[in-house]
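Researcher: Next entry: DNA helicase (Uabimicrobium amorphum).
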Amino acid sequence: MQKQKTIEELQKILELIEVERKEDNRLFVEMVLETSIEERKSRGITWYPITINKEYLGLGGTFVIEIETKDKNAEHNSFSNGAVVSLFAEKGRGKKNPFVGGVVKNVEKNTMTICLYSDELPEWMEDDKLGVDLGNDEKTFVQMQEAVRRVIEAKNNRLEELRDVILGSTPPKFSSLPRTVVEGINPSQQLAVDKVLCAADVAVIHGPPGTGKTTTMVKSICETLKVHEQVLVCAPSNTAVDLLAAKLIEQNIEVLRLGHPARVHRDVLDNTIDAKMLRHGDYKLLKKWRKEIQDLRAQATKYHKNFDRHKREQRKQQFLEARSLVREVQRLEKEICREILRETQAVVCTLTGANHELLKNCEFEVVFMDEAAQALEGASWIPIVKARKVIMAGDHLQLPPVVKSVEADKNGLGISLMEKCTTRQDVAVMLDTQYRMHQRIMNYSNRVFYNQKLQADRSVKERCLANEISVVDFIDTAGCGYEEQINPQTKSRYNPGEAQVLFTHMRGLIRLLSADEEMLGKLSVGIISPYKEQVRYLKEKSFEHMKIYEVFGPRLSINTIDGFQGQERDIIYISLVRSNSNSEIGFLKDIRRMNVAMTRAKQKLVVIGDSATICAEDFYNGFVEYIEEIDSYTSAWEINT
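Model: Predicted structure:
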């Protein structure tokens, strides 16, 4: 009966992934396909017109182009390294297959380098004005659905056993191996490593903010590699994957970082399949063949206008020869890749990257998943399909998976596999010592989320900017008339009054710290808001406060809560934005996000909001009560007078 419920639960997840896929596609169509070029340009999701300055064959036989736009506003855009894009021709829009897709390798000012999904430019692009749109990639949804189907259909194999343990229908098993003492970690981290090594099926490292989750994960991987020759290490984001790869490289582990080079941080590029291929003995032959391919294509494209039958046939033959050589390049590349894989200890990739062609039919004794609480369940199953044992690490009390569909979120797609496993089985060890923040910054999150089990290490417990400066401030804008506003284009909210209070307070803090120029010159500051429009407004207005820039310069960053995940700053300001007569707080209700925001601070936390609006929610009412307990309440009237 329990197993049947597990299957039904997975079938429901499959349906919800489809709901999310449709919503994602609807939003993309609304944003790109149903709007004019000029409107898309104003939103920063389109460059038009563009010119192709350069085209060449990159690593792995990838066709690469460098484009440029003369649009002066192009620098303000939503393109980033690793983003999926679509090139289009103006006349081609509306025709069948009017796009060619690709991935952004690099974007700088008004130039962009793109790795295309095609091995040549389509003919329809030769005589038309071209543009590039921010694209939509449905491949991830297909991969998630395929993985969940495999899990549902698993029978009489290891995947069935893991499925039933992770989802709670079968109890987990643990062996009683002799304890391995690991140097340089605290008692709770040691317990977590022990749990990992003794688990037969699954274990979870629960890492609250600042508790050294990544350190514990890396120690666990290193200890595991003393028993097994190779492991798979995954995370939902490229940023998290690159951090793990860098930490493992520091431990002299032979790492293979799988993934598109455009999405890999430069610090670990040497460990990508492409970089390792460059150092392989057969690379010279690959390089020779690639040069021949490029020459054949160059010769063929010379005859794209006004050519007779003979030249047309010659062009066709040159393209055929080029394609034949491409196949030879791909064959040799596969042989080299398999050799590289055999020499690897830790294969490191994103969750969807576990579907890499190189890993087809591979099985790993242990699969490690970091930041597992931020992953959609469907994505988490992708690497688990290849596992005999699963280790998850993360914090289900911080950022949840991103779900765009309200229906899918309401029906449970926003609950991660790690959260399900942690709440249904006794498989988790919580790391209980944090090394980031003053205890007063930690205390409220500890009370609400961690049942008072979290403690501040002695090195940070009383660390502050100065004894006479409070560690936590709540600046209350109630009664000041600083109501939220809505940008009619983006529909996102902002609050100019809060921004004014924030910068005024920051200037005052600089004055208080000015006696210690050396310390002031080292402090890092983060300004966080849950609303993108407030982030945009704060960035724009920050240029009017030159004193702040003179003091903090590049050590000042302004971003959303998601943008600060995994980061820390000496001083954190949080602008809550919401201020209205109906006490509506929107997605401020997701208190896990506020847990993230508040725990980014090391020495000082300043929260700015309207208590009359936010205190309708228990979390914020409790926070204001905590602020009163520690005598850290200030009215915005006092700041602006």
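Model: Note for the record: The first helix runs from residue 2 to 33.
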